[in-house]
Amino acid sequence: MAKHDVPVAWIESPLQLIGAAEWAAARGVRPDLAARLGEQVEETAAELHARRAPFRDRAAYYGIPWRMLASHDHWLVGDGYSGQFRLAAAALRPRRITFLDDGANTVPFADALAGAQPYARPGVVERGLTRRLAPIALDAIRMRAAAGAVELFTAFELGEERESRLRDLGAVTTRHGFEWLRSTRPDVAGDPLPSGRVILGSARVVDGHIPRADYLAWVRAEARRRGASYLPHRRETGDTLDAVAAIPGVRVVRTQLPIEVVLAGDRGPYEVVTLPSSAATTLRSVLRGTESTVKERTGAVGGRTERVA
């Protein structure tokens, strides 16, 4: 099978999709897109296409997009921990790999590549083929890095020590600030949300990190401060959203898009309130220059506030 000269972006989440668009715009390259069918991915892909995202051919898939991967030497990969990526990398051995952001896993993954922690998804006990493939896939990645063919393209601050360890492997780290996404929103009158205050939904309940009752108490406390639009996390359950919608002062807004896309390029200002989340980092970049604030709450009261410069 003939290899394409352009890369293929293999993505599984909205944030990974945005990262692929940012990479493509920064490099002036139009990669093919293999987007896994899933929550908000199709909607985000359609929205980015409407904003003229620099992608070439697009294909939706379940499982591993073997045909597209086999026909490309350069992969843009969203989830470097996944068992499917490990299997495909071990079998096909791409010549070049660019890793995109995968939310809270971005920094631990960088540490895993550099050997500072095991190559295993944090908090997950890996078994079976996923575990057996780990050393094979990691060896393939490090061989590519030694040849100068691995890049981490990220909106997150990795720190000089971590970047130094990656440089020792031969890997390149490139920072971005959502420059393409911030330039795409049409300049229209009015706000995209009915309130200048936004409570950002969390998957911490469904992931078992916080009891549902405590989470709802936090939303109530925020609503008592001032009414707000509530943007659900893509993995929140219907029961939780129904309970949130019943809280006075809260209006649930189901955009089917990640908040970075909803607010990108808007004049604002917004006050965004969230529990500790990687979205706090991405939003500070997306909202730069709007005089908006992003507040991370550590509990029902208190927290940390940072003005977006």
Short structural description:
The protein is an alpha/beta fold and 309 residues long. The chain contains 12 helices and 13 strands. The protein has helices at residues 14-27, 41-50, 66-70, 83-92, 106-114, 128-146, 160-169, 179-182, 212-225, 238-245, 259-263, 278-286, and strands at residues 8-11, 32-36, 58-61, 74-77, 96-99, 150-154, 172-175, 197-200, 228-231, 250-252, 271-274, 293-296, 304-307.
Structural class: alpha/beta
Biggest sheet layout: 7 strands, parallel
Beta fraction: 15-25%
**What's the Cα radius of gyration?**
20 Å
Distance between the termini: 49 Å
How many domains in all? 2
CATH topology of the largest domain: Rossmann fold
Report the CATH C-level class of the largest domain: Alpha Beta
How would you describe what is shown here?
This protein has 309 residues and is α/β, with parallel strands linked by helices. The chain folds into two domains: 8-182, Rossmann fold, CATH 3.40.50; 197-307. It is 38% helix and 17% strand. It contains twelve helices and 13 strands. It has helices at 14-27, 41-50, 66-70, 83-92, 106-114, 128-146, 160-169, 179-182, 212-225, 238-245, 259-263, 278-286, and strands at 8-11, 32-36, 58-61, 74-77, 96-99, 150-154, 172-175, 197-200, 228-231, 250-252, 271-274, 293-296, 304-307.
Write the topology of this structure.
Elements: E1 8-11, H1 14-27, E2 32-36, H2 41-50, E3 58-61, H3 66-70, E4 74-77, H4 83-92, E5 96-99, H5 106-114, H6 128-146, E6 150-154, H7 160-169, E7 172-175, H8 179-182, E8 197-200, H9 212-225, E9 228-231, H10 238-245, E10 250-252, H11 259-263, E11 271-274, H12 278-286, E12 293-296, E13 304-307
Parallel strand pairs: 1-2, 1-4, 2-3, 4-5, 5-6, 6-7, 8-9, 8-11, 9-10, 11-12
Antiparallel strand pairs: 12-13
